[in-house]
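Suppose you are handed only these lines of text.
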Amino acid sequence: MAVEPVVYGASERPPRGDYRRAGADYTCRQDYAAYTPADHDTYRRLYERQAALITGRACDTFIAALPSLGASHHIPRFEDINERLHKATGWEIVGVPGLIPEVPFFTLLANRKFPVTDWIRAPEEFDYIVEPDIFHDLFGHVPLLFNPVFADHMQEYGKGGLKAHGLDACELLSRLYWYTIEFGLIRQGDGLRAYGAGILSSPGELRHAVESVQPQRLPLDIERVMRTRYKIDSFQQTYFVIDSFQELFDKTAPDFTPVYARVKQQAELAADERAVAA
Ligand code: PHE
Ligand code: FE
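From them, the structure of the protein bound to phenylalanine can be written out as follows.
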């Protein structure tokens, strides 16, 4: 079966990645031999820059799990990570050529498989890349999959995505993904920290999200999240804060069917819309 490439939103850019390598479930083997010395060097430099910024900014759970990715001076092999990850939480990472459509994405998550883009950005994209590459996917997403509560949440998200697909609510659910799994903040004993992958893999956003006085930070409110549009090409103007991964799990556990119905009746909120003080 031929699979179609996927791009974010309406875009004139050609899709990245070679989708001819993907099977019907959109996964592909990590083509380790295809990485050049420059690719490994890009990974090493990205890792080094980001690792130097996480103290006091990334949550403790992330910092504790980061070494589980293995070597930081070259691109890791998925099979090496999987040996540790599978033992820790029963999750596994699988290679994909880039963004994949909703249903195959949710299906993988529901089966405790996390899709990781297998190519790395070009040197001229060192500071900024719009679509996820292997650095974002591995460094940003995979450490928290070693945490049992977060790991269970990701699987529930996958199952919830398949359900949302049938309810025509994928866009609402994708906002939840955006404002939690990608750009979530967590309050721990010694202060505010990041757990979202989009923050943790970006040097600029990591400082902005945790330290800037400019963005608004609201307690996680599922309906507000689902109403709030998001921007993919600038720092976030609104972040949602949890106190624990258990809170994230518990707040997303109820049946979303009536939630989607309610949210569809309400006006959308702009990404920078300020909450009215209670
Ligand atoms: N509880 C949600 C539902 O019933 C599913 C879900 C779980 C969504 C966890 C996101 C995260 O649709
Ligand atoms: Fe991501």
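What can we learn from it? Residues 46 and 206 are 14 Å apart (CA to CA). Residues 148-166 form the longest helix (19 residues).
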